[in-house]
């Protein structure tokens, strides 16, 4: 049996007529830059995220960059974020000449440890950029309390978390801005690069709309310096079709996550959840995600073990696709060496980078495939004894 990490073709085939018709409609209209399909996608994603405004962007990366630009963040400014994320979060801060200021993660959720944010705020801090990693939201109450009291903006990196909830509130709707990515492997994936920013602030929405089109209004009259960060109309049309299926796909991912946790718990392996592990549970084989009341959309299902690299190789040998998100935390990346960090500065992020592994969790995963993955994990640990 072959179990890929993700099976985008299976998803496409399940809705092929609708996707093909949506693409054909844009081709027939020949309206590729902004226009009705982009506006429709913006309205729909904003509504889905419980926000008043949506601004289509060319990628999740550009969505983050445009928000920082909208806040006029640049040299001499500091932005607080997590070192355990995809490069784009930190890269967008650094590209504007601002300084990324890292805060270690909470090992229960792998998200920014909110108890450590306050001590990193200085007179130069302009924003906090929490990342809702793997589809689970960061602790936004604490983040918003600190941000409001200290007068800094909050830009939610919700690239992996569309539709996730924190205390009933949707990802992207709590901070000043929320940024989504429609990179193909995200829960709502386009057929290429695409992204979108949501906000509940009309002035911020207007500035983002300017920034994504070279800062011009009307055309050729440039008020501020922007870029080309526009969402493509073909991508927008595809995202609109797929959005209708997102809740169904999310339910399938949640089902798959529950099934992994249940099956792994029945194997006789020593299993703990991240909460028990962070609380000091020792001599466990495998750590599984902690179940939460909040809506977790499981962009990834993450297991954790000290034998991560050998487990990954054993699963690969059986035709099971896995991935490491992410093997090198941002503070020890070569390109950020100028920040002066060293190994040991953010121990929770470093340990997670050494020990976590993503299993196949995509909606189309079958019972047999899930059972095969679990059996392969059990076999690996039996052979270790
Ligand atoms: C995917 C991702 C991004 C970037 O999105 P792109 O659309 O690929 O530019 C940013 N942050 C996180 C956490 C991501 O997972």
Ions and ligands: pyridoxal-5'-phosphate
What CATH architecture label of the largest domain applies?
3-Layer(aba) Sandwich
- Would you tell me which CATH topology of the largest domain applies? Aspartate Aminotransferase, domain 2
Shape: globular
Q: What is the distance, rounded to the nearest whole angstrom, between the alpha carbons of the first and last residues?
A: 26 Å
How would you characterize the largest beta sheet?
7 strands, mixed
**Mean pLDDT over the residues:** 97
Overview of the structural elements:
With 385 residues, the protein is an alpha/beta fold. The chain has a seven-stranded mixed β-sheet with strand order 1-9-8-5-4-2-3, with helices on both faces. A two-stranded antiparallel sheet has the order 6-7. Helix 2 packs antiparallel against helix 8, helix 4 packs parallel to helix 5 and helix 9 (246-265) packs parallel to helix 13. The protein has helices at residues 8-14, 16-29, 36-48, 60-70, 87-95, 140-150, 202-211, 233-243, 246-265, 274-278, 308-317, 347-355, 367-384; strands at residues 53-57, 78-81, 99-102, 125-129, 153-157, 165-166, 169-170, 177-181, 195-199, 271-273, 286-288, 301-304, 356-359. It folds into two domains: 8-243, Type I PLP-dependent aspartate aminotransferase-like (Major domain) (Aspartate Aminotransferase, domain 2, 3-Layer(aba) Sandwich); 246-383, Alpha-Beta Complex (Aspartate Aminotransferase, domain 1), CATH 3.90.1150. The protein has 13 helices and 13 strands. Helix 10 links the parallel strand 10 and strand 11 (286-288). It binds pyridoxal-5'-phosphate. Pyridoxal-5'-phosphate binds next to helix 4 and helix 5.
């Amino acid at each position: 049996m072959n179990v890929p990490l993700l099976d985008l073709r299976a998803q496409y085939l399940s809705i092929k007529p609708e996707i093909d018709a949506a693409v054909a409609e844009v081709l027939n209209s020949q309206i590729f830059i902004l226009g009705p399909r982009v506006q429709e996608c913006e309205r729909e994603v904003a509504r889905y995220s419980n926000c008043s405004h949506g601004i289509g962007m060319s990628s999740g990366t550009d969505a983050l960059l445009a928000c920082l630009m909208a806040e006029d963040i640049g040299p001499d400014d500091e932005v607080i974020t997590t070192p355990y994320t995809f490069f784009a979060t930190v890269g967008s801060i650094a590209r504007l000449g601002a300084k990324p200021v890292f805060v270690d993660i909470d090992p229960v959720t792998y998200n920014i440890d909110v108890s450590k944010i306050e001590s990193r705020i200085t007179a130069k801090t302009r924003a906090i950029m929490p990342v809702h990693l793997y589809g689970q939201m960061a602790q936004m109450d604490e983040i918003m309390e600190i941000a409001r009291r200290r007068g800094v903006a909050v830009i939610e990196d919700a690239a992996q978390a569309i539709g996730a909830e924190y205390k009933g509130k949707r990802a992207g709707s709590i901070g000043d801005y929320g940024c989504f990515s429609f990179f193909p492997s995200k829960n709502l994936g386009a057929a290429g690069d695409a992204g979108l920013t949501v906000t509940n602030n009309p002035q911020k929405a207007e500035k983002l709309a300017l920034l994504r089109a070279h800062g011009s209004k009307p055309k050729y009259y440039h008020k501020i310096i922007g870029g080309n960060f526009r969402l493509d109309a073909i991508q927008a049309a595809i995202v609109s079709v797929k959005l209708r299926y997102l809740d169904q796909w999310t339910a399938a991912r949640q089902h798959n996550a529950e099934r992994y946790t249940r099956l792994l718990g029945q194997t006789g392996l020593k299993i703990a959840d991240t909460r028990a592990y962070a609380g000091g549970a020792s001599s466990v084989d495998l750590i599984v995600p902690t179940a939460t009341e909040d809506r977790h959309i499981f962009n990834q299902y993450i297991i954790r073990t000290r034998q991560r690299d050998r487990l990954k190789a054993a699963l690969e040998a059986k035709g099971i696709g896995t991935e490491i998100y992410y093997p090198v935390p941002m503070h020890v990346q070569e390109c950020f060496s100028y920040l002066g960090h060293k190994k040991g500065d953010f121990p929770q992020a470093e340990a997670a980078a050494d020990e976590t592994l993503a299993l196949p969790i995509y909606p189309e995963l079958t019972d047999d495939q899930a059972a095969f993955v679990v059996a392969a994990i059990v076999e690996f640990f039996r052979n270790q004894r």
